[in-house]
Amino acid sequence: MQRPALSLIIPVYNEEEIIAELDRRLKAFFREIDESWEVVFVDDGSYDHTPAALKELAAAEPRYKVISFSRNFGHQAAITAGMDRAEGDAVVIMDGDLQDPPEVVAAMIQKWREGYDVVYGQRSLHHGEGVFKRATAAAFYRLLRALMPIEMPLDTGDFRLMSRSVVLAMRALREQHRFVRGMVSWVGFQQTAVQYERPERFAGETKYPLRKMIRFAIDGITSFSIVPLRLATWLGLLSGLAAIVTSGWALYSSIAGETVPAWATITIAVALAASAQLIMTGILGEYIGRIYEEVKRRPLYVVADTLNLPPTDSASGREKTGKVSR
Ligand code: UDP
Ligand code: MG
């Protein structure tokens, strides 16, 4: 089979209200561009009508391919599965809720034709995302950038085009806690941005509640930085200095016979030391937990079914080889 010029990877999790409109927008977009294409939908364990809707679309359009997970493995696992199977010379990751407009992909393709290997969408404006989400996202990206040893662009999500070379490099990265946008930066190659205004979600609710966002942020930091671990050294030095000063003062007071109870000082010192230690134990735990999950070497996702695609081998993410008995 000949490889298409363009692959779109679209993760979907309970997006029944959007599939029909997504299909319309995609087909309109494909009519505009002059490229061969495929779409790899990754159904991340949806339990609404999304799987049925995808099945119907795939039956009518063989270039619509579907990978269905056995349960919800998360957005980052879903785009990983897409990258494992997308065969295009250029591969684009986009959200299924039309917040990453297909029309922007045309601009990305143009940059790719100019010779760039990665073209990421940079958000100049977000419509309809609350002040809180925007402010926390902005703060997070700036913190991450300060902690990260590699350059990562600001205000970008996973909406990006990657050349086949980048996708092949990405397939080699099989870490469990995945922060795909950082991994793409890590891989390198010529990277550039296209600006776009991020529209509101077409319908439905965000699948990234605050709890998931915090977990994702911690994954981002711990995947790319060990600066938090070094915090212990700095805190230790700081409290060591404080200890020297306090000891001097304590010795002086006792020699001078000023045996004041000093209740407040002791209480504050103990509380500070205890909280610093607990924070550091927590940070150590984050990293140790990740080591534990990494050494189990579990597959990143389990595929229950595929449509218009040969079955996937869960261990490697690649096409299953050998006889498949069902
Ligand atoms: N998504 C997914 N699995 C999840 C959560 C989200 O596949 O566990 C998909 C979702 O269907 C959407 C995309 O990832 O296509 C981005 O999610 P969402 O729009 O909810 O995130 P937000 O834009 O609010 O950050
Ligand atoms: Mg969205």
CATH class of the largest domain: Alpha Beta
Helix content: 40-55%
Count every beta strand, where a strand is a DSSP E run of 2 or more residues. Answer: 8
What hetero molecules are bound to the protein chains? uridine-5'-diphosphate, magnesium ion
Could you say which overall geometry the principal axes of the C-alpha atoms support?
elongated
The CA-CA distance between the termini, in Å, is: 24 Å
Number of domains: 2
Strand content: 15-25%
Number of helices: 10
Query: In the CATH scheme, what's the topology name of the largest domain?
Result: Spore Coat Polysaccharide Biosynthesis Protein SpsA, Chain A
Average predicted confidence as pLDDT = 87
H/E series? EHEHEHEHEHEHHEHHHE
Could you give the order of strands across the largest sheet? Answer: 7-5-6-4-1-2-3-8
List keywords for this structure.
326 residues; alpha/beta; Spore Coat Polysaccharide Biosynthesis Protein SpsA, Chain A; 2 domains; 10 helices; 48% helix; elongated; binds uridine-5'-diphosphate; binds magnesium ion
Condensed summary:
With 326 residues, the protein is an alpha/beta fold.
Task: Describe what this molecule looks like in 3D.
- With 326 residues, this protein is an alpha/beta fold.
- The protein has two domains: 6-209 and 299-307, Spore Coat Polysaccharide Biosynthesis Protein SpsA, Chain A (Alpha-Beta Complex); 227-296.
- 48% of the residues lie in helices and 17% in strands.
- It contains ten helices and eight strands.
- It has helices at 19-32, 50-60, 75-85, 102-113, 131-147, 164-171, 180-187, 210-224, 227-255, 263-295, and strands at residues 6-12, 37-43, 64-69, 90-93, 118-126, 156-163, 191-198, 303-307.
- Strands 7-5-6-4-1-2-3-8 form an eight-stranded mixed β-sheet, sandwiched between helices.
- Helix 2 (50-60) links the parallel strand 2 and strand 3 (64-69).
- The longest helix is centred in the C-terminal third of the chain and has 33 residues, at 263-295.
- It is elongated, with a radius of gyration of 25 Å.
- It binds uridine-5'-diphosphate (UDP) and magnesium ion.
- Residues 11-13, 15, 44, 72, 74-75, 78, 95-97, 99, 201, 206-208 line the site of uridine-5'-diphosphate.
